[in-house]
From TrEMBL:
PANTHER family: 39S RIBOSOMAL PROTEIN L28, MITOCHONDRIAL, LARGE RIBOSOMAL SUBUNIT PROTEIN BL28M. NCBIfam families: L28 (TIGR00009). It holds the Pfam family Ribosomal_L28. InterPro entries: Ribosomal_bL28 (IPR026569), Ribosomal_bL28/bL31-like_sf (IPR034704), Ribosomal_bL28_bact-type (IPR001383), Ribosomal_bL28_sf (IPR037147). One of its GO terms (cellular component) is ribosome. This is Large ribosomal subunit protein bL28. One of its GO terms (molecular function) is structural constituent of ribosome. The gene is rpmB. Keywords: Ribonucleoprotein, Ribosomal protein. GO terms for biological process: translation. The lineage of its organism: Bacteria, Pseudomonadati, Bacteroidota, Flavobacteriia, Flavobacteriales. It comes from Tenacibaculum sp. Pbs-1. Belongs to the bacterial ribosomal protein bL28 family. The keyword Ribosomal protein applies.
Length: 96
């Protein structure tokens, strides 16, 4: 390399991808098998039914956006968002 040539700096940009995990229940993908009629087995993933939803928390007077599963939505309808968030913080699923 020529001593006066500019040095090329190559940096790789890392992209962080959010994991597909429910923030309130901790549900995530499981691994299992597709089983054909001939009983051939191939690996597959069973993904959690996740949705991004906004919730209003009246105690804190603010809106929060969470990635939640369908079962977490049922818990929110049953117990209320404040109680479910409190349980998730106790279990360590939610750090916000």
């Amino acid at each position: 390399m020529h001593k006066f040539a500019p040095r090329l700096e190559i940096t790789l940009k890392t992209v962080k991808k959010m994991s597909r995990v429910c923030e309130l229940t901790g549900k995530k993908a499981m691994v299992g098998n597709n089983v054909s009629h001939a009983l051939n087995r191939t690996k597959r993933r069973f993904n959690a039914n996740l949705m991004t939803k906004r919730f209003y928390i009246p105690e804190e007077d603010k809106w929060v956006t969470l990635k939640v599963s369908a079962s977490a939505l049922k818990n929110i309808n049953k117990k209320g968002i404040s109680a479910v968030i409190k349980e998730a913080r106790e279990k360590g699923f939610l750090t916000k």
